[in-house]
Amino acid sequence: MDRWEESFDAWTPPAPGPGPPAANPERIELEALQRSLRESAATVAARDLELAKLRRELDGARAPGRERELEQALAAARAEHALALAERDRLDEREQAVRAVEKELAALRIELERRASALAEREAALRRSELTAPAPEAQSFSEGVAALARTRAPAQD
Asked: pLDDT tens digits for 81-90?
């Protein structure tokens, strides 16, 4: 054996160092395939469970008492539906009544605002007239007593 050939027999690949296994793309591909197989297996298991559940429901639906139970459930659902429709009609009627009351209240509010505005205008006019009106002449004490006496004196015929 030549010296050149001896070096091939003793050669070993270097050990992978710390870091990503990017040096070995076959391993990465193998891991991706394994992950894909695990996901597929989980999907198949979930479908198997769903199929078993559906089979149980189908077997339960074929049971003799199950048909009567389903008819009762259907009748109850129809009754609930009828009640819901009646309730919706009552709610529509209430809504219309509420709208009518709201319109009436809005009209009353407008009327009250109009009256309040008119009253405020009258009060302002009254204040202006009081400020511009001449003050009554002050009476003397004796004139006041005489006026009081006239109002208290018995009427003489």
From this structure: 999 999 999 9
Half-sphere exposure of 148 (CA within 13 A, CB side): 7
> Which of 11-20, 21-30, 75-84 has the weakest average pLDDT?
11-20
Please give the Cα distance from 47 to 56 (Å, whole number). Answer: 14
In whole angstroms, what is the distance from residue 26 CA to residue 32 CA? 10
Distance CA 90, CA 96 (A): 10
Distance (Å) of CA 144 to CA 134, 136, 137, 151, 152: 20, 13, 12, 11, 12
Compute the distance between CA of residue 141 and CA of residue 138 in angstroms, rounded to an integer: 9
Give pLDDT, residue 147: 86
For residue 43, give the H/E element and its range: helix 25-61
The residues, ordered by sequence, that sit 6+ positions from 16 with a Cβ below 8 Å of its Cβ are 23, 24
Alpha carbon distance 78, 18 (integer Å):
69
Quick: pLDDT tens for 120-140.
999 999 988 888 877 667 788
CB 66 within 8 A of CB 60: yes
